[in-house]
Amino acid sequence: MSKVSLEINGKKISKEIPDHTTLSIFLRDILNLTGTHVGCDTSQCGACVVHVDGKSIKSCTALAVDLDGSKITTIEGLTTNGKMHPMQEAFKKLHGLQCGFCTPGMVMSAIDLLKSKKNPSDTEIRDWLEGNICRCTGYQNIVAAVKEAASKM
Amino acid sequence: MASLVGSRVERKEDKKLLTGRGKYTADVNFIHQTYAYFVRSPHARAEIKKVDISKASKAPGVVAVLTGADIANDKIGGLIAGWRIKSEDGSDMKVPAHPPLANESVNYVGDHVAVVIAESLDEARSAADLVKVDYKILKAVVKTKDAMDSEQIYKDIPKNMCFDWLLGDRAKVKEAFEKADKVIKIDIINNRLIPNAMEPRAANADYNPSTEEITLYTTSQNPHLARIIISAFNGVAPENKLRVIAPDVGGGFGSKIYPYAEEVVCSWAAKKIERPVKWVADRTESFLSDCHGRDHVTHAELAVKNDGTFLGFKNETIANIGAYASVFGTVTPTYLFGPCATGVYKMPAAYTNVKAVYTNTAPVDAYRGAGRPEATYTIETLVEKAARELGMDPAEIRMKNFPTEFPYQQTLVHSVDSGDYNAGLKKVMELGEYESFEKRKKESESRGKLRGIGFCTYFEACGIAPSPVVMMLGCGIGLWESAEVRFNPTGNVTVFTGSHSHGQGHDTTFAQIAADQLGVPIESIEIAHGDTDKGPFGYGTYGSRSLTVGGTAIVKACDKIVAKGKRVAAKMLEVNEDEVDFNNGEFVVAKSNKKKTIGEVAFACYLPGTYGEVKSPLPDGEEPGLKETSFFDPANFSFPAGSHICEVEVDQDTGETKVVKYTAVDDFGTIINPLIVEGQVHGGLAQGIGQALYENCHYDNSGQLITASYMDYTMPRADNFTDFNLGFTCTPATSNPLGTKGCGEAGAIAAPPAVMNAVIDAIGTEISMPATAEKVWTACNKKNKNSEAA
User: Fold this and answer.
1) Which of B78, B251, B395, B451 meets the CB 3.0–4.6 Å disulfide criterion with B98?
2) How far is B247 from chain A (nearest CA, A)?
3) Three-class DSSP category at B686
4) Do β-strands B657-667 and B595-597 pair in parallel, antiparallel, or remain unpaired?
C-alpha cells in the first residue's frame, strides 16, 4: 500500500492504495469517476485516455502511485458550470459518437492534439487518433468534429 | 410546429455520453458486491476428468467456487439455439447440450469450466489459478471445410453436421444451366470475424432475498429476450422474479442480442450466495467467448447468356457455427442468407444449399448484417466476374438483370414491395464520377500505384419480422415490437419501447416520431428502454428492425392516444367526436375553431370531473388516464437496397491496399434523421471495409485463437479510411406507415464485395478476404512471375 496525492478535475485527493492500482482503476473503482472506460487490456483501444499534467495518456497503463503530485483531468472535468467543452459540443453537433463507449478517450485525445496543432488536417487528425479505436462511427464524423472544434477553440 | 421527421436533430442522448455520465454495466456496483472470474478451457477439445476446487475455495477472499456439477445439481438448463432448421431430407437439426458451465467436455478455447467468486476481482483472479482441471485432451476440429471429414466431436452428431439445408429447386437450376452460354464459377471464403463492440460484455446480478427477485444488469441489445431465456430455458428464476436491465450499452453489432453463459451463471450464483455477483470481460475474454461472425466456405455458379442475361444460380456453402448452436446461429446462415443469395437480380432459377458444421471454435452467431453480407459477397463477386468474362461493363450487366416492376417476387422467398435499382446505380455512378475513373487510374499509375474500381448492388431483407412467417420457418419466438406511450398528467410524455438503443440514437429518432405524431415538443418526450420492469415485452434491436417495427409500434400507440384524445376533446368542447380534427398537438373543431391542446386533454384525462376551475368530465364509459400500448407485427420484411462503388489504390512494392474513394447510394425508404442515418452508414462501411482489408479471426490447427488481442486482430482505425461520399434515393416501404426500411447493416453488407471487386480489378487476380498487404503483395508477385514465365 502507498499513499498517493493527486489533483483530479481541480480537487485535491489523497488515498492509501495498493501499489498495483492503475490510474483507470483508481478513477473508476475508488473515485467513482466512471466516465473513463476500459475497452482492452493491451493499451490499444484508447477508451481510457485522460490528461496528466495536460498531456493525454492511457490510464489503464499507468500506476496511480507513479503519478503522485500530478494534475489529472478526466472527461468529467471538461465541463465548466454545466457548459460542455467546444470539443464535446462539436462531437454532439456532428454526430461524432454513437454508443459513447470510446468517446471519453476520443475526446480527451483530440483535445491534446489541438494543443500542439491548432488547425490539423484530416490526415493529421486521423494519424493522431490511430490509438483510439471506435467501432461505431467509421471515424468520419469524429474527424469532422475535431476540425469543427479546432475552428472554435 | 414544423415536422421533425427528416430533420438533422442533434442526439438527445449525447450530453450524458460526452460528459462521462453514461451508465454502462461495468459502472454499476452494489453494496456487498462480489466479483466473478471464469475458469476457461485452455484446450479446444477435451474431456473433463476432474475439477478440483479444494485449494481455490480456501484462497483469501473467496466466497464460492462453482462448477458444472453444481449447475447440473441445481438443474440449471443449457443455452439454447433459437431457430429450428430442418435438413433437405426433412430431419431436424442436431444440437449438442450447452451447459453454462461445462460438465463433461469442453469444446473451444474459452469454454466455461468454473466460476470463482470473491470479495475482490484480484482475489477471484488469483484463486482461479488454483482451480485444477484434469483434462483428457482430444484432437480439435478447426477448419470449416474439413469439419465433415474430421473426428466426430459429439457422439450423436455424425459428420459434425448440424443440418444440410436447401432453399430452392435443384432440378430447375439444372435445366437453366443446360441453356447457358457460359457458366461463371467462384470459390470463396467469407472470413471469420470477431464483432468487437468497444464495451466488453459484462453482467452484474443482485438477489433480493426479501422479494426473491433477481435484478440483472447486462450488456444486452435485447433485455426482454435475456429475461425469457434465463427464466424459461435456464430456469434460474420465474420471469416475474427476474428483472433485466440493459443500461447504456457500448455497441453490440449482433454479439449482444442473446444471453451468454456468464449472465446465467451470475444470476444463478447471486441467488445461491445471496450477494451481488459482477463479471466484466477483459478484452481477451471477449475475443475468446463473444460469438463470432461469418465463416463460410462457398462454391457458387452463375449461368449466363452471352448478352449478360442471368439464367440460374447455385450456391453450395459450408457454414461454421462453432462449438455450439447459438441463439441465432442457425438462422444466420439459412433464412438470413439463402433468400438474399440471388442479390437484387431477376434470377429464373436458383438454389442455396448450406451444410452447417460444428468445430472446436467459439460459437458463430449474428454479426452486423448476419447472413446478408455473406450472400451479397457471393453474388456480387460472381456478377463482377461474369462482367469481366463477358467483356461487359459492371454497371451494364447489373442493369440488364434488375427487376423494374414492384412488388417483385424473388425466386427465393421474398416479395420485395418497393425499390428502384436503376435510379440508385445511376446516381452512384454520377456521384462517384465513374466516367472519369480512367483519368484517376492514370494519375495513380503516375505515382506507381495500381488503381481498381469495384461495384456492389445489394438488397437486404430486414425490419425483422412478420411473426407468422418467421415462426413457420422455425423461429422459436415472434418478432413483433411493442410501444407504450404514456402521457403524464402535466403534459410531458414517456415512450416505452421494446427495442434497445446501444448507439443507434433511438432516444432522438423515436422522440422525433412521437413529437410529430402528438404535436408535443421533442424536449418533453422521454424514450425509455432497456428495463424489463418499465415497458412492455419487446424483442430488442438487431436486423435493422428498431425503426421499422419498433418505430411503427410508437406510431400505432400514438394513433390510439389521438383517438382517445378526440373523444375526450369532443366532450370538453361539447361537439360530436367526428367534428374534431387533430393537428399539431391541437384538437380543433373546424366550424367554430374552438380547440383544446393535447396537454389540456391529457390533464383532463387525469382529472376527470369538475373541481373549481377544472371542468373535464370524461365521456360515458371512458376510463381515466392517457396511456396506450401497441404491439406491431409487420406484414412483410423491409427491403433496403443500394449501389456502392469503391476505388482502391495498391502499392505493388508493399502490397498495401487503401480505399481511396468510396461512394454509396442507399434507399432506406423514408429517413427520419439524416444525421443518424449517415452515421449508421459510415459505421457499417468501416466494418465492411474492415472485413475486406484488415480483419480476420485465426485459429491455429490445435484450435488456439491466435488473434485474441488488439495486437493481433486488426481493428480498423481512423487512419485506415478516407471520407465516404453518401447519397440517397427513396422508395418508401409499403409495409409500415413510416415508409422506413432500416439502415444499420447496409454498409457492412455492401462494402466487402465493392472493395474486393476493386482490389481484383486493380491487381488482375482473384484474392480472398482480408486483402492484407502480405496477401496482395504475394498475389501481385505470383501473377508477375506467371506472366514472365509465359
Assistant:
1) B78
2) 11
3) helix
4) unpaired
- pLDDT band for B112, please (50, 70, 90 cuts): very high
A40 touches chain B (CB under 8 A): yes
- Grid coordinates representing B596? 383544446
On whether any CB of chain B is under 8 Å from the CB of A121, the answer is: no
Alpha-carbon distance B336 to B475, whole Å?
A: 12
Q: Is the pLDDT of residue B789 over 80?
A: no
pLDDT at B1: 61
Residues 474 through 513 of chain B touching chain A, CB cutoff 8 Å: 502-505
Show the beta-strand stretches assigned E in B401-514.
408-409, 415-416, 449-459, 481-487, 493-497
B253 touches A at CB < 8 Å: yes
Report CA torsion sign: B537, B541, B545, B550. positive
* CATH architecture under which domain B296-464+636-789 falls: 2-Layer Sandwich (3.30)
- Which of A41, A84, A99 has the CB atom closest to B19's CB atom? A84
pLDDT in tens, A73-109: 999 999 999 899 999 999 999 999 999 999 999 999 9
Please report, for chain B, the start and end positions of each structural domain, with discontinuous segments joined by +.
14-138+201-280, 296-464+636-789, 480-632
Using CB atoms, pick whichever of A41, A103, A137 lies closest to residue B679: A137
Q: At what angle do helices B773-789 and B746-763 cross, to 10 degrees?
A: 30
The sign one gets for the Cα dihedral B666, B671, B674, B678 is: negative
Q: Which CATH architecture has domain A2-75?
A: Roll (3.10)
Tell me whether A91 touches chain B (CB under 8 Å).
yes
Q: Which residues pair with B666 in a beta bridge?
A: B642, B728
Q: Which residues of chain A have a CB within 8 Å of the CB of B193?
A: none
What is the band of B8 on the pLDDT scale with cuts at 50, 70, 90? very high
Contacts of residue A91, defined as CB under 8 A and 6 or more positions apart, other chains included, come to A97, A103, A106, A107, A142, A145, A149, B14, B18
* Residue at grid coordinates 472506460: A37
Rounded to two decimals, the ipTM of the complex is: 0.98
| pLDDT higher than 80, residue B771 | yes
Inter-residue contact B319 to B71 (CB < 8 Å): no
| The listed CATH number (3.40.50.10490, 1.10.1140.10, 3.30.2270.10, 1.10.150.120) that belongs to domain A86-152 | 1.10.150.120
pTM equals 0.97
Residue of A nearest to B20 (CA): A35
**Full DSSP string of A56-123:** EEEGGGSBGGGGTT-EEE-GGGS-BTTBPPHHHHHHHHTT--SS-SSHHHHHHHHHHHHHH-SS--HH
